[in-house]
Amino acid sequence: MKYLIYGAGGTGGCLAAFLAQGGKDVSLIARGAHLEAIQKNGLVLETGHGAFAVPVEAREQEQVTEKPDVIFVCVKGYSLEGTLPTLKRLSDGHTIVIPLLNIYGTGGRLQPELSPALVTDGCIYIAAEIKAPDCGIQGELSRDIQRDALLKFSVVSPMAACGIYHNIQVAGMQVPGQPREDFKELVAEIGALASAMGHPFPEDPVPRNLAIQDALAPDASTSLKRDLDAGKPSEVDGLIFEVVRLGRKYGVPTPMYDRVAAKLGFSMEEST
pTM of the prediction? Predict the structure, then answer.
């Protein structure tokens, strides 16, 4: 099997490094200074179990010519459209394309664009970020990838929404107080939405997601908050505004998401 990772950020970089460390045939699409650093030094990961470097073939998208068996798409939602020409060129009826984005429903939106390749939805839990431009993976075939993708979404979206609404890092949600209560309400709203969409969670997501959040470093924050704070393009539409739209579509009240979206200037009338 030949694997191609499109995107060398926190998700794509870690995925490529662990696959390469596990002896898999993997290559990486990267760009700029990050690409130069990978080509020079390999992928360098600093983890809770120590740091390691692993050589990985990395190239710009225009330089990739061979068709892989599996393509993992690990870019931000706002960059997805720009990947389509390369994904179409590198895929055919034997290719499996697995998007690993924070945005729910990406696979369904990509499938018509990339047919006859098979596009699935994908879900990964990873807390990582690029520190400088300078196979411990467990995978399973989901029986309900829509449910599992929504379950992952019920972690990252509320964490981003709560952090932005209160202008705090994870530490502010790890202690009793209004931010923690708001995080719980945001998670519950996603749970209600999942049930209305026909993909109910097997258990109450609130205790589960609190445990995930509480295990993170106190100074952690979401990429969405970091991008908004830096004035960069962000995934705010897919991570927050889309929840409000889905709530209206499925008749599920989302009062906490409504407050967050309103703070960010979202107008339901303008989006329809």
Answer: 0.69
